[in-house]
Amino acid sequence: MVLTGVSAAARLRGRPGRGRLAGYLYLAPAAVLLAAFHIYPLFYGAYVSLFRWGLTREAFVGLSNYRALLHDADFWRALLVTTYYVIGVVPAEIVLGFTVAYLLSQRIHGRAAYRLVYFLPYITSMVAMGLVWSWIFNANFGLLNALLRVLHLPTPRWLLEPRSILALLHFGRGLFAAGPSLALVCVTAVTIWYYTGFHAVVYLAGLTAIPTEIHEAARLDGAGGFGLLRRITLPLVSPTTFFLAVVATIGAVQSFAIVYTLTGGGVSGGAEAGGPLGTTRVVTLFIFTTFYTEFRVGYATAAAFVVFAILLALTALQMRIGERRVHYLGG
Amino acid sequence: MAFDNGTRMGRRALLGRVIGAAGGLALDGWIAPRGSGGSAAAADAPVPVAFWHANSGPLGTILSDLAGQFNASHPTYRLQPEFVGNYTALNQKIMSSVAAGAQPDAAQAGAYGAVAAYLRAGLLVPVQRFADGPDGLSRSSLADIFPGFREDNTYRVEHKAALVSWPFNKSVLVFYYNGTMLKSLGLDVPRTWDDVAAASEKAMRAGAVAAGMGWTPGSELFAALLYQNGGRLLSMDDTSVLFHAEAGVRALAFLKDLYDRKIMYLTKQFDWQNDLVAQKICFAVSTIVSQQYIQQDLKGAWDLGVAPLPAGANKATILFGSNGVIFAKARPEAQAGAWAFFKWWAEPEQTALWAARSHYLPLRRSALAMPPMRDLFARDPRQRAALESLDYAHPMPDNVAAWVRIDPLLQDAITKAVVGLQAPRDALQEAAAKANAILRG
Known about the structure:
The structure holds 2 protein chains of 2 kinds.
Chain A: H1 5-14, H2 16-48, E1 51-53, E2 57-60, H3 64-70, H4 73-104, H5 111-119, H6 126-136, H7 143-150, H8 165-168, H9 182-208, H10 212-220, H11 225-236, H12 238-253, H13 257-262, H14 283-293, H15 297-325
Antiparallel strand pairs in A: 1-2
Chain B: H1 11-31, H2 37-44, E1 47-53, H3 57-73, E2 77-83, H4 87-100, E3 106-109, H5 114-120, H6 128-131, H7 139-144, H8 147-152, E4 154-157, E5 160-163, E6 166-178, H9 179-184, H10 193-205, E7 211-215, H11 219-228, H12 246-260, E8 264-266, H13 271-277, E9 281-287, H14 290-298, E10 304-308, E11 317-326, H15 332-345, H16 348-358, H17 371-379, H18 384-389, E12 393-395, H19 403-418, H20 424-440
Parallel strand pairs in B: 1-2, 1-3, 7-8, 7-9, 11-12
Antiparallel strand pairs in B: 3-11, 4-5, 6-9, 6-10, 6-11
């Protein structure tokens, strides 16, 4: 006998106890996985953060780890570096991703090839990509400086340069307060290069979801060119923009592999990652180093919870802003 | 730190063992033939000793060969070496195993500061306990081990100095040079840092290289120069740092001078190695183990020279490498097996064999007279360079738990001073103030 969806639902409605049980059974595999790998670690992490915990549990310290973080200049610096990084990465990824997607949605020759080219970085191994970019940025014999030498231009030290770009342009002093270091700008640029293809693909999906009749109707009403883009296309892809803004912010705050590979981790075990002078030491690297190099597990876990709280607040803020500005078709 | 951590058993562990024993008995009755033969066989079975390490590729093969030899000569034990990734991965796996309560019996402790952290967490049985035991080492045998290696593995345990870990794969900072280039320029192998500067300038003037040396800033070369100037990184009682004293300031000023005169440029990670191979520089400082990697890339294009680190006012260099540890949670018979392996590993025959095949250093002086080392010296006299340095080699103070947090401060101070962001004295004093605060706890 073939049991259709409707008849199965009707049968289940007829036996409420069984239906509920079946529902729980369907949920169980996912719920068990979530509980084992997300919920339990979350609570256990909260528990660990309340202890002085080296490699093993030592003493209950309550909120001392959190209080210590408030006074830890390295942690604040890592947060500042992360802020510079997020501000550099997220808007650029969104603008470039949309621009590429918009151009690729037009009727141009070799569109499929362009789509492949832009998406290629995203499917490249992050470590391999990091090593190649390290060579491009090599201060002494890298490709970029070789090109600059040919053009008789100054050759910066790129990933080895701890001074801020503003300081290099004689607009400021200091290492951290004067803006991101040139090394961080390099890491930011590589991140943007890596993720633009992903953003473009998501935007392409958003653009193709816009019914053509809306554009046609707008054209009939005299809209065209930039006006069409600003008044029709951009508002209608705003759910995609909102989604990408949330995902990119979370991704940028959690960035690790790119920074780790470009700034000295990997081969040497990570002791130097985050250099030069900690100017690329984003908060995930701070947590990693504190946990695995300094063996301060409780403290690192507390830092991870602070970052979690910051991300939660940021996402809530984005949701609040997004609710007002996002236009859903048919909504 | 209690030495007998393994003798007390928690309720959960007891329950686990009871269930395990019951399960073992049940399986024994189900699978093994009845009679006493099975139990006798179990009693005679070699004790498995799990040993986690980070030796990949050819090094892993040599270690496996030696482990096979150990098992053949020690039928009581079955050493099971397990490669678990590089030093970082090894450390991460050990941390995870600690959380899961399932450490190996013994391991290589490679990540810097790892032994100090394991000791502080009460995870280790100091090897001193075995060295002093019935299967221990004689005074003369212990004295035969190079002093730097003993110092590197000595920690304060209950206010006394004790051997906590055991030297495993050890190397030392040496000086590499492009022998072919020096010969063509009519230059001798530099013996002092002044020689290095002079030779670099001559090679640069001749257009042979872009700079004399490439260097990835780190605390080890600075420490070597500091010791050469008669300084120390830490006070004798390890309660305060001394790297900001005059010897340290002079060491850092010298590095800055090399950088300012463009005799030395800065690199990232192992970029200097590629630059040396490509003849963009003619000198480099690294551990003796780098030799095989450079040779591999070089493919005989030119003659690589190895010499002891150039001298300053005195001779000094720095020890590198990992040590072996025995975990407190291991069964006593497995701990005994791990110690038997470590002791065997450091015997002249084995350490000579390991050194000759791996380019790491032999652990004891008497190994130099062993056939594998004699053959190595006959084949490649450069290997002596590292050994000549051992008499004046110092370990980095990784046996001080706080060093793992102090070292990055020192590295930052070195970079800041060399690139001219801060004067050497100011940079070191700033780092010292933070380091002393960490040491005060």
